[in-house]
């Protein structure tokens, strides 16, 4: 336990010193993966009843303490892809990434860390969220070659304010700017993401910021019945997209099918596995 | 303890049977007040260090368990006004309400119930939130003479969806409709309120729904130092009001001064003590 939390604490320090996209953060992430995967290899697995079509889930287990649900196929596929993921990030060699392999590897790492925290620090939601934010923020920073900001100034006639936001990646004058909110899951809080996008559109002009939300999963575990459900509100998302603001992409690690379907109907919302970011990004910033 | 939770449970049942604005809910609320105030009269009080200008706070105490902070002046003033508050609600006689007396009485009741739950069910945030929602929803229902809805249909060309919302009071064809979100405190979640208002404006047309947010307080207690602070983000509220949607009123029980000031500068946001709702409402629905 102390190893995992110590490594996690060192990432936060290294990030402040060297930047979120630095080689130093990458090497801490790799170290964290080694610690968590070795910890989890000693844990028992509990099969779960999946109410999610086409997906099977299990939880890691220590005594009676049970982790969040884990997509079995995705997790197992991810184990094989971890080394490639770290290599792609290390060499910034993103052309050869296989989207499905990268998504699975990223899922394996992120959900594995979350499971460790579930088992070791019951009720702690903040640590998993912070690590996921660091991981996704790091991937964007490596791919785009720039560091994110978390505050932007608003200058507007006689008022001046500082707007705290999710990650902002600014590619420079006349170039694309990314607005990157990161959530382990969304539920009813997701309307915040559209509201922040609306604020950026209003303050700086529509089309200046490309909103790309990144989420891990929408699964929920009933700990009594050991049943996994997926909580999705696709018709509400469509209303947000029509009436509040437009998100350019939404990426998932464990992509819920009801959200994937939103890409098939007008008005389209493009919800895809995270690995497709690398194929999308060139056309988005072109 | 069981008395308080039993009475609370009966309110929820009575509300479903008779309606939120019914005499039956009112009489349950009165009974709940008696139970909570008798419970609190036996609790010790802990003085707190107030970092909020011009306000003093204390907490109720049982052993080492401490309640949320309570505005002393407002709470004490409220004790005297409780009977009048129940009479005004009983007789729907709102012309004679003194805004400051009503606000204090309402605060006394609501924060008193929250304090009981803090002491009896540590970590339970949901029960205080639900009671506060019932209380405020009841007051609106008594004053407006109608029951609220919590779902509205969206019919839009080829799509049909049901939009879950906060309370909606619809005074009828061609008349005002109130959008009433209720929060014990707001913090960073408050952007949701503006986003929902924006959605209503977009779906039904701007000006159709009068957004009136009701909050209890913005205080936060440091349980180690026994210090009370007030967390306010007035410049962010101004951005939300300028760029997301327009709320017509925001009412507080324990009104933070930085928010009250928002009424003095353009673009104005009218943030007032709850009791002023009764004076405001006639001009709002005129």
Unreliable runs of chain A, pLDDT <50, ≥5 residues? none
Quote the average pLDDT of chain A: 93
Major β-sheet profile of chain A:
7 strands, mixed
Helical content of chain A stands at 40-55%
Oligomer class:
homodimer
Q: What is the end-to-end distance of chain A?
A: 45 Å
The computed structural class of chain A is: alpha/beta
Tally the helices of chain A: what do you get?
A: 9
Q: How would you describe the overall organization of this protein?
A:
- The structure is a homodimer of 286-residue chains.
- The first copy, chain A, is 47% helix and 22% strand.
- Chain A has 286 residues and is of the alpha/beta class.
- In chain A, the strands form three sheets. In chain A, strands 6, 7, 8, 9, 10, 13 and 14 form a seven-stranded mixed β-sheet that branches. In chain A, strands 1, 3, 4 and 5 form a four-stranded antiparallel β-sheet that branches.
- In chain A, a hairpin with a 6-residue loop joins strand 7 and strand 8.
Layout of secondary structure:
The structure is a homodimer of 286-residue chains.
Chain A: H1 2-18, H2 23-41, E1 44-47, E2 49-50, E3 57-62, E4 65-66, E5 70-71, H3 72-91, H4 99-120, H5 126-144, E6 149-156, E7 159-170, E8 177-180, E9 182-183, H6 191-204, E10 209-215, E11 219-222, E12 227-230, H7 234-243, E13 249-252, H8 257-260, E14 271-273, H9 277-285
Parallel strand pairs in A: 2-12, 8-10, 9-10, 10-13, 13-14
Antiparallel strand pairs in A: 1-3, 3-4, 3-5, 6-7, 7-8, 11-12
């Amino acid at each position: 336990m102390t190893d995992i939390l110590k490594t996690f604490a060192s990432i936060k320090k290294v990030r402040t010193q060297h930047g979120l996209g630095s080689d130093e953060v990458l090497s801490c992430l790799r170290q964290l993966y080694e610690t968590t995967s070795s910890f989890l290899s000693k844990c028992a697995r509990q099969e779960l009843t999946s109410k999610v079509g086409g997906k099977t889930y299990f939880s890691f287990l220590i005594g009676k303490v049970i982790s969040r649900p884990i997509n079995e196929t995705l997790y197992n596929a991810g184990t094989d892809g971890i080394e490639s993921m770290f290599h792609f990030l290390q060499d910034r060699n993103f052309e050869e990434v296989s989207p499905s392999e990268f998504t699975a590897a990223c899922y394996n790492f992120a959900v594995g860390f979350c499971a460790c925290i579930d088992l070791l620090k019951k009720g702690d939601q903040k640590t998993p969220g912070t690590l996921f934010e660091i991981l996704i923020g790091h991937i964007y920073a490596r791919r785009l070659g720039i560091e994110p900001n978390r505050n932007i100034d608003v200058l507007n006639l006689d008022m001046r304010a500082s707007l705290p936001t999710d990650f902002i990646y600014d590619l420079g004058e006349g170039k694309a700017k990314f607005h990157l909110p990161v959530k382990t899951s969304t539920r009813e809080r997701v309307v915040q993401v559209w509201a922040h996008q609306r604020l950026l559109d209003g303050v700086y002009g529509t089309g200046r910021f490309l909103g790309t939300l990144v989420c891990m999963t929408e699964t929920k575990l009933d700990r009594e019945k050991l049943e996994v459900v997926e909580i999705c509100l696709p018709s509400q998302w469509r209303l947000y997209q029509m009436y509040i603001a437009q998100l350019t992409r939404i990426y998932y690690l464990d992509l819920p099918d009801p959200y994937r379907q939103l890409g098939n109907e007008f008005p389209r919302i493009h919800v895809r596995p995270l690995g497709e970011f690398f194929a999308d990004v060139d056309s988005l910033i072109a």
